[in-house]
Each structure stands twice: as C-alpha cells, then as structure tokens.
Amino acid sequence: MKTLFANWKMNPQSEPEAVKLARAEDLKNAVIIPPFPFLGPVKKILKQAPLGAQNVFYEEKGAYTGEVSPAMLKKLGVRYVIIGHSERRRLGEDDAMIAKKVSAATAAGLIVILCVGEPAGIYKKGNRATELFIRKQLRFLKNKKNLIVAYEPIWAIGTGKNAHPEDAARVAQLIKSIISVPVLYGGSTNSKNAKSFLEKKEISGLLVGGASLDAKEFLRMIKIAERF
Ligand code: 13P
Fold this sequence. Notes:
By secondary structure, the chain is an alpha/beta fold. Helices cover 39% and strands 16% of the residues.
C-alpha cells in the first residue's frame, strides 16, 4: 500500500473547514499536512492518518520571531515535516538553511519530506541538466535516517502539467542511487494520473497539493494507492 501526503498549503481558511476535510481524509495510507494553526485541532480528530507540518525551524528555542521548533511539532503529535518545498525556496530558503533544518528535524525524531525539483529552464535543457540540478540539491545530505525525498519538478506544481511517469521514475531512481530512501512524486497529481506514478516501483507515494483540498478527489486517489 503506497501513501498519499496531503499538502494543504495555506488552505482551507478556517478551523471548521480544516477539521471537516481532515475527517474525510483520515485513512491509514494518508498523511494530513495542514497549516500550523490547524495542527492541534486536526490532530484531535485524526484516528488513522498521521499528521505532518509544512515547515520547521532549526533552532530549539529563543529569539526567532515567527519560527516553530522541531520539539514544538513533536509535542503536538506531528510525525512528518516538509522541508525545502519550492514555494519556500522561492521565499529565500537556500540549501544551507535547508540542510540545517533537515538535520535538526531528523535529530528530533521527525520524518522529513525533503522536496527537490528543477525549474522549467533546467527541464528544457534535458535529462542531464535535471540530473545535475537534483544532485546539487542533495549534496548536503549525510544521513538517511528519518528521511523521505519528494521529487517535485517546479514547472509541474499547480500547473496541471505533470511530469512523464517514466521521467519521474528515472529521477526517483537517481535519488535512490544517491541516498537510499523512499521517494515521492509531486506536481499536478490527480485521480486520472495517480496510477501512472504509483505503478512505478521507484515511487513510494505522492505529495498531493490541489487535489488534496477536494475530499472526493483525494479519496479516489487513496483507493488507487491502496492497490499498490
Ligand atoms: P499540486 O498537486 O497542486 O501541483 O502541488 C504539488 C505540491 O506542491 C505538493 O507539495
């Protein structure tokens, strides 16, 4: 059974909506990843799905306005944390910061979903350019404990243009050759294309954005993931 990670991003807009969506998606091969303010309320109602967070800081405590520590997440019952999503890299997170976050979060016992993926300009240059780009993003990794890598080509996120499943499987295999951890695919996945990714042995699950906000669509994807 493969797993679907529901990255809700900055949605939905209220706690009642978040709790309702979490209830609908609370299945054992799903991981629910809501915005920070909804972690507590969502955790309270989940019976099967583990909880994830979308970001974390690398320090344990102190004068870091707006940041949240790995221990704070652990205390809320969070098991997974996304680090290095392209939407955060775009806001200024670089590999050095991402490396610190990964080591602090994994050391605290959180399972990190480290996101990597090339922009459109690199993709257009071909497989070799993509490979070099991904290698560079993974260069800092030393330890595979508590680590999952998500391959999310930036041009495929929220665009309706998913990667070719063969390309995603090839990059997943490359990632595994660098560090042998489970690899997810993310980028415009839905119930129509989920099977084409999930049937690849190199791909252990999907990091789902937009489709995870539609409970019916997400449940259709869950049913597909149960078959693999
Ligand atoms: P979409 O599924 O909306 O393309 O988002 C993918 C993503 O960024 C998951 O982290």
